[in-house]
Batch of 2 targets.
Target 1
Amino acid sequence: MSQYLFEPPAVVTVPVEGQDEIFPVRRILCVGRNYAAHRREMGGDDRDPPFFFAKPADAIVSPGRDVAYPPMTSNLHHEIELVVALKAGGKAVPVERALDLVFGYAVGVDLTRRDLQNAAKDKGQPWEASKGFDESAPISAIKPWSGPAPQGRIQLTVNGDVRQDASVADMIWATQEIIAEASKLWTLAAGDLIYTGTPEGVGPLRSGDRVEGQIDGVGKLAFKVA
Ligand code: MN
């Protein structure tokens, strides 16, 4: 029997509200431009549909942990997002059955090196360096959930000042559509997390900033940029 050359990487996990079992993360998909007002603030065309990109699982920042200001950027941006946590997977999942895959929801922040993203856009280059860097995916505990997806208020403050304040109901692709669309492109599986896109009001963070986010009925997240 073969042996590992070195200790394999640890499984990334997220705590679950109200229970001891922890959620093992398989991978992280993210949706871009899923709110019309944010698509406009990013200079997008109103007819462009949302799209997917990804972060590595180990970009997760567990609840209660702070985030080090990342290297190679001077324009780190916050993007508050509803996160879907899957307990089951599949491919080509019909919209009507998509919510059956959901274990629960969390509050997440899609941290973005905006300067690197803008440079990549200008050159037609990929987004990994601007989106999939270390500690780029802070998350709250996951709240177990059944029934219709969250629709409530989504809000982010920096040092107590409201920066993003919108409604999850304004997503262009609703949660069940996001799952169905993703399953056309990839085989989804238990442990997948999907960051569902951010509303308008994204902006820069500085060292020392305290970031707090919340989504009605889902939970709260807080971290400091160290
Ligand atoms: Mn985002």
Target 2
Amino acid sequence: MNDGALVLFSGGQDSATCLAWALARYERVETLAFDYGQRHAVELEVRPQLLAAMRGLDPEWARRLGDDHLLDLSVLGGVSDTALTRDAEIVMQDNGLPNTFVPGRNLLFLTLAAALAYRRGIGVLVGGMCETDYSGYPDCRNDTLQALQSALQLGMGTGVTIATPLMWLDKAATWQLAQELGGAPLVELIRTGTHTCYLGERGTLHDWGHGCGKCPACELRAKGYADYLQHA
Ligand code: ZN
């Protein structure tokens, strides 16, 4: 359609890496986040500083990075009952999925992103979904996203595509990708400026970044960073 990309940018490590990936590739990049009643809004709070810092890393990125969008998706908290939208212990459920799984979340996110991209004249949606070392969320699978892309193309009558640069990377490789895209300054920005922790804990700065250090998201991030350092 054109040379623009819309990045699902939550403020976490993965989406920040996706944003850098898009800035290295597309002439015009816009960002989008959803407020769906996450029980901790820390991710959303770190976004403006992250966007400003991204602009500061590279004048070309500053030129390319355009509007940021925030959509209210509080309805998601009304229809689902998960550990991300209410105060509950993170546990594994009988169906093999952790109760941090918000059913249909990525389907909704990408459908709304496609609608916004349509209005903005943007042809590529970029998301940090990954099925390499993930929590088993079915809406992060490549098959799901390929099927959704077909549905969006048919349903919107456009050639909109979904790009998932992290799909086949583990967390260590995601750090490596950041290193390749923006060198040490980008790695440092992602390490200190992004937020991944499920519990919304920000206080301590570990070598792998901020977070409680105990929840599944922190454990994955810490392990990935350690692996990355080992092979860097
Ligand atoms: Zn945590």
